[in-house]
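Supplementary Methods. Inverse-folding protocol.

Structures were first reduced to a discrete structure-token string of length 287. This string, shown here, constituted the complete conditioning input.
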């Protein structure tokens, strides 16, 4: 699939942690993908409607922009890594493919985590509080990769291998249209590129050379929500990223995500997340 050839993975952090019952956080949402490999002890994790007992020898995946809870009742140790990902123009691989979130690891995969730590000793998270490492990590991201092609290639290859272990056999959008567009992936790129503008279902249907009703039904069959709902969710997802990764004022963020003014953004944001943008930023970054 052509979009997967353009997959971008940018390392944010990597390390090894020994954690106790202070590792206990609810309603965490990260702008990046998180992978764990448990080596000792036990812990728990919840996301995407599933509960996981974290146990030694297994790897665990938390997609970006996914609310999750995790806790350790006693003690455990883990390798971890976090990274940003996109396929094209803000489209996530998690929009395109089905994933599992728990897989059994082998010695080679543990060695990959060790290699990431060896290559990036300054990428360890100093404090496991998600508010702190999200904020600090964004500041340091990529500082040791930009001018080192060898390091960059090896890092990306390792991340691709680790992420590949969680991929199932089926794409989310195996339903094809009967037009020259081939599939509906291109519409995700169109939405991402035009989030700052007004987007109608009619526009999207014309873009795909489909009638509105058929397009809307096909879109829901593939992505699980109607196009208007998807657009709204992507606007709020982009707003979350801007709130966490910049100091831009609410009015500017509203304009960049196509919600026009701060008041409308706040209303929509709270409706979908339960909190206002200002509260979200304060909770996640401690500002």
């Amino acid at each position: 699939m052509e979009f997967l050839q353009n997959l971008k993975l940018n390392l944010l952090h990597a390390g090894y942690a020994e954690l106790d019952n202070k590792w206990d956080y609810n309603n965490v949402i990260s702008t990046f993908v998180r992978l764990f490999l448990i080596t000792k002890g036990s812990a728990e994790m919840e996301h995407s409607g599933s509960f996981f007992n974290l146990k030694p020898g297994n790897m665990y995946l938390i997609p970006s922009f996914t609310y999750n809870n995790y806790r350790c009742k006693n003690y455990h140790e883990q390798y971890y890594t976090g990274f940003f990902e996109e396929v094209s123009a803000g489209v996530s691989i998690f929009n395109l493919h089905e994933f599992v979130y728990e897989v059994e690891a082998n010695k080679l995969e543990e060695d990959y985590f060790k290699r990431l730590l060896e290559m990036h000793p300054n990428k360890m998270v100093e404090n496991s509080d998600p508010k702190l490492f999200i904020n600090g990590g964004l500041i340091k991201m990529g500082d040791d990769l930009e001018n080192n092609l060898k390091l960059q290639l090896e890092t990306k290859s390792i991340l691709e291998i680790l992420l590949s272990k969680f991929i199932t056999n089926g794409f989310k959008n195996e339903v094809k249209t009967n037009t020259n567009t081939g599939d509906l992936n291109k519409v995700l790129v169109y939405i991402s590129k035009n989030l700052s503008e007004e987007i109608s279902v009619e526009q999207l249907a014309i873009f795909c050379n489909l009638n509105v009703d058929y397009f809307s039904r096909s879109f829901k069959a593939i992505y699980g929500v109607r196009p208007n709902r998807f657009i709204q969710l992507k606007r709020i997802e982009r707003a979350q990223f801007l709130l966490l990764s910049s100091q831009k004022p609410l009015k500017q963020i509203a304009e960049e995500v196509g919600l026009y003014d701060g008041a409308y953004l706040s209303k929509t944001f709270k409706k979908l997340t339960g909190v206002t943008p200002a509260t979200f930023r304060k909770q996640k970054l401690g500002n």
